[in-house]
Amino acid sequence: MKITRVTPHHLSARLSQPFAYSRSWYDRREALLVEVETDAGLIGWGECYGPPRLTGPAVAVLGERLEGADPLAVEAHWRTLYAAFRDHGQKGVLIEALSGIDIALWDIRGKALGVPIHRLWGGPVRQSVPAYATGLYRRREGDPPRYLAEEAAGYVASGFRAVKLKVGFGIEDDLAAARAVCEAIGPDIGLMVDANHAYDVVAAIRLGRGLEPLDIGWFEEPVPPEDIAGYQRLRAALSIPIAGGECEYTRHGFRALFVAGALDIAQPDICAAGGLTEVKKIADMAEAFGVRVIPHCWGTGIAIAAALQLLAVLPPLTPPALADSPPWLEFDCTEHPLRQAILTAPLRPEGGVIRIPEGLGLGIEIDRAALARFREGR
Ligand code: CA
Fold it and tell me: At 319, is the pLDDT very low, low, confident or very high (cuts 50, 70, 90)?
């Protein structure tokens, strides 16, 4: 079997209402999907995190090098492509492009061998995982504590056992929002906060101290990803677990974070940090360092499917014991017209739990009509 073509698909869709996190507003959602075709008729799908206008051309450049190659040699292709651009692309867009291609090659591998991807790693360890709701962004109109509390209560009503609140809008503002959400969801539901590196260490410690009485599950990206010393200081200063890593890449980048003791929870994004090949290695390394892994996931159904295949085999958050502590799926609940539309069957949690797909490869089918409908610039 040979690879015949690697195609980036840039999709986009306008949102009915814009929403904001600490760094910017969104008024549309975009996606860069990767299609890898073979001469055997098998097709694999992947997705890249990051700006499609950059990842799309990068996928095309990397993909050209795979034409005529054996699609099952996934590890070999990862190494060859990484080595080809190592001098210029150890992090960022190039690794995001490599991630999307890698996921598509794993999809082909599973389909060719007649198993879901998690079987190729010796799984499944579990048939389903809990999902937490990512949402609670800011809107143009309304009083944040009020609408955030209402939104959070809605997630709890639909079965989620944990929700994540965007912070980074000013310490007093964040504390008011967190208290309102906490009250709305009650003591049995987990609450995490995510600053998207809006603060420096001084401000993050001040916010963290205010949040400590609320029993926060983790404080995500409190400071810029380059500030490893800042992460270390926060871990020492706060009782809240410190999470991060969605802006880090490859085993080399995560090794530096683990050696420094920067994280309690590592959040590699499979569509950014190097695909399934690399994030499995990152997760194995994290276990050796005693760091929990809860992948970052903020894409379409392809990103969700890739995360689920890995979550099927990740170790429990705490060492195996009678009481299981499965890793969580990050489930983005914000408006995303593409998320489920590109799948022929939706992939979403029921009662806060989501089943690991058991179909071949990623276990999903792509709806080509949706690709045409949402094509950028159509
Ligand atoms: Ca985040």
Answer: confident
